[in-house]
Every structure is written in C-alpha cells, then in structure tokens.
Amino acid sequence: MAMDPVRNPFAPGAGQRPPELAGRDRELDAFDVVLERVSRGRPERSLVLTGLRGVGKTVLLGELRSMALRHGWGAGKVEARPDAGLRRPLSAALHRAVRDLAVRHRAPDRVEHVLGVLKAFALRAAPSDSKLRDRWQPGIDAPTVTGRADSGDMEIDLVELFAEVAELAKDVGAGVAVLIDEMQDIQPDDVSALCAACHELSQSRAPLVVVGAGLPHLPSVLSASKSYSERLFRYLRIDRLNRDEADRALTVPAADEDAKFDTDALDELYRRSGGYPYFVQAYGKAAWDAAPTSPITAEDVRHAAPEADAELAVGFFGSRYERATPGEREYLRAMAELAGGRDEPVGTATVAEHLARKPSSLSPARDSLMKKGLVFSAQRGHIAFTVPHFGRYLLTQD
C-alpha cells in the first residue's frame, strides 16, 4: 500500500490527544473510582499527576475532564501561571462547571444564586483601588451576591465557593471536577488556600474534586504549603511508555489506516523516542511521511529521523532554550555535559565545580531556571531537566 500523508494519524502537539491513548489505563481507572465514590457520597482524595514535560499530563487532564462530563458532572480546566493569581482563571473554570450542571437543575433561582456568589468571588480579582472602567468583568450573567466567598481572603473565599458549587452538584446527584494544569506554578498563597479548601471538602464529603498536574517537584511544593497535603492528595506519577505501550500507540492508529510497522521499525522508533509520548508521535508522523509503502521499515525511520529531530529542535527544545539567558544556558550546558546527555539528575555542587564557580554565585541562575520550568530539584542538592532528552539536545548546540 502506498502511504498517503493526508491519512497520517499521528499528532505531535502540545496537549493534543494522540489517536491511541496507550499506557494510561491505571490513571483512567483511578479517576473512574473517584467519580463513582464521590457520586455515592463516599470520602475520596483529590488527584495529583506528576511527570516530566512530554509525558502527556495535559492530554490526560483533558481525558479526565471528558470522563467527568460523561458521568454528568460539571467540569472546568485551569492552566496556572507563575505571574498570575488563581482567582480569575478559577472563576472561569467554575463558571463552565456550573453551566454544565445548570442544564439538569430544576431551580433556576438556585443556579442564579451560585453564579452570583461566583461573580462576587471573581470580582475580588481586581485591585480595590483600581478605577471602575479598568476593572475586569467576569462575564457572568447573574446579579452579584455579596457576603459569601468575597472577603478577599483566598482561603476563606475558596472554601465557601467550593461549598456552594458542590451543593449545586449534589442537588442533581452529580459532582464537580476542577482540573489544574501546571499546578507547580500556582502562587504560594493560592496553593495554601487550595489545599485548605480540598481539606475542607474531604472532611465534609462534598462532591467536588481537584485534579492537578505538574512537574515532578509538585508534591514538595504542596507539602511546603500545608504539611497535611501528603495525605490530602493521591499522587500518580506519569512516566514514559514501556515498549508494548509505545508499540500500541503506533500500531493501532496505523492499522486503522490499513498500514503497519515492521518489527525493526518499532525497535528503531522506541530507541529514538525513549517511549516519551510526545516523541512517539513526532517520530511516528515523520516515519509515515517518509515511507513510500507499508509496512514502514527501520530504514524509513532512519531516513525520517532528521526531519523529526529538526521539528523537535525548534518546537519542543528550542522554544524553551530561547527563554534562558546566556548565564542560564551555561548552567544548562554544564548539566548536560555532567550527565553525558542522559536524563539524570546532577549535583548542584558538581555543576559549580564543573564551571569553576562558587555554588552561591550560581544560585540566581538555578533559581531562575526553576521558575522558568526548565529544571527542578530532583532531590536535596541535585537538579534535573524537566524536559526529557534536553541534555542530548544541548550537546548538539554550538
């Protein structure tokens, strides 16, 4: 069969769902249990997904949101940013969740009341001293209800708002899922408030769950805010695919298009992708386009690899590398050299020794790289890349 690029099923892209969501049954099953237990009024912890970039955390959050909606729940998604508070994006996410529930609720006045509380919560995102014309309007079509979730104290307001929204869900025998991507970027006060609100929810068995996703150091961010967060969330580590899972991510979509990969091609694809879902899609797409006929061979994969490498260099690695200053790039390069291009943590003291610098003089560069989400503290005194294969990429740069 001649290969048709129009029928290429592979989809490398940030947050884009692959045609076959392989290797994530454990997480999907865990969330299904959460949905069922919460719907029956049983206690259940919120979920936190952690992993490197490119392992499919954002895709998985989208899938969990779809599962919640299929269960008749309200669901809203937030992407946290380090330079912005949580109040405004969380308002938009909960507005979406309330609208999901409103179509099943028989008391419009009750829905309007909750929307009014949500609006009051949202309006506190604007500084109190800002001019009226400059104040952000949340776009919630309901009169503002004051005296609930609008104190300005994020912890108090979030507990009260979650209680209002959860009660609305309970009226229709459903629940609410709040999904937060890049959770490690939530500002410290908001992290504390979110943990307190989740703690209150778990004690009252309210039908609202938070599902967070973030980089590997997210559990330490949460525990630094509230010591009980270790017991508050169920942590699931999202890792690269094993060989069988990576093969399935390639062979199932190909078979749907009447094509296949030979065994040697699958060997070569796994060697190059390392099983990271983003790379599996990138190399799979390039191999399909390069192959003249089915089955796709190892030679097709080798012929296509430079094109996939070039796309990753620009869109996946390069876009992140460009955000680093010259001093930060020097630090990154040292990490790559010390690890030999492998995805392994290195000692911060070893980096300083490698650069012939005092460790204290490198702290600003390291801290800035952590804020930019390029590295994380893998363990005490060690640092690692948040992006798989980043060290290998850096060693190819001049």
UniProtKB/TrEMBL annotation:
What residue stretches are annotated with the Cytochrome c domain? 170-321
What superkingdom does the record give?
A: Bacteria
Q: Which InterPro entries match?
A: AAA_16, Cyt_c-like_dom, P-loop_NTPase
Gene Ontology MF annotations: ATP binding
Which UniProt key words apply to this protein?
Answer: ATP-binding, Heme, Iron, Metal-binding, Nucleotide-binding
| Region entry Disordered, spans | 1-22
* PANTHER family for this protein: ATPASE DOMAIN-CONTAINING PROTEIN, DNA-BINDING PROTEIN-RELATED
Protein name according to UniProt = ATP-binding protein
The organism's taxonomic lineage, starting at the top: Bacteria, Bacillati, Actinomycetota, Actinomycetes, Pseudonocardiales
